[in-house]
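pinned: reference chain
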Amino acid sequence: MNTNSERKSRSVRIKTELDKHLENLAKKENRSVNNLIETLLTKASDFRELNEDTKQSIEEAIKEKSSQKRYTDMDQLFKDLGK
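pinned: its structure tokens
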């Protein structure tokens, strides 16, 4: 998990027993409750954060896409591929 990304503080209400359970889990894994909750939420929601290289590659691909030749005729496409 990227520790340098921007964070937002959010207050939530949870059951006391759940809080105790999370504290015990965090203690067993030698991590903070906040880190444990963030990790659990990330996994449960299938959240993926792109790294800078991936973001840059996506931007480059979008820019290149606009300059690429487009085809409406399959014969012309195969003709160009055969060059």
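why pinned: The CA atoms of residues 71 and 77 lie 6 Å apart. The chain has a mean pLDDT of 89.
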